[in-house]
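Researcher: Good morning. I'm working through a list of sequences from a screen, and I'd like to move beyond sequence-only analysis. For each chain I'm collecting a predicted structure so we can compare shapes side by side. This is the next one on the list. No need for commentary yet; just the structure.
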Amino acid sequence: MSRAIVVLPTYNEAENLPLLVPEILGQDERLEVLIVDDDSPDGTGKCADALAAGDRRVHVLHRSARSGLGVAYREGIARALHMGARWIVQMDADFSHPPATLPKMLSEIEHYDVVSGSRYLQGITVVNWPIERILISYFGNAYVRRVTGLAVTDTTSGFRCVRREVFERLDLSRVRANGYAFQIELNVRFAELGARLLEIPFFFLDRTRGTSKLSWRIGFEALWLAPRLRLARALGRL
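Model: Good morning. Structure tokens for this chain:
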């Protein structure tokens, strides 16, 4: 049976993890979860180990320090490839990405290389964000699209399913960005590879448990990365 491994980076998600993992696994029997924990002080790592002990479809990768979302994803994706995943899903651990969307992703990935969830494909499908955060995200995406030329409505979406062949061609060691900028860089590199990409709409729900990891530093990284990626692409250096 083909394996679809959900790479789930975590930092202080002990409240969400025991609820989220069973819901993910219940969507499709092909789904497995790889929890990538950055030595969370709230006991998320121990919670992940307990879940893995009780279900062979749950796996854990412990990292010794918190060094950014991009680094966690690079290591998690590399581990998922080593485990033999046919499809790799990127997903947040705070319920902002609805597990109920996963069956649609798995259905569409049969015909595409990348299936990405979008908050802006059909208007703005974001719930419980303050208006200023919605505006920053929406117009930030418009800025990134204009600078990079991406034909993607949600350039910073961290909810996607990718064929293993795409990551095998991409060379993850060259992806340097962290935070939302990591998602932007992946989209640019997918486009450079000529990957067949489909966006599907989903309702983004702001977290109700735990605290957000978003910071101004992460936002500024996304802003300066866009022109750098455009230049690198123009010079053939991606």
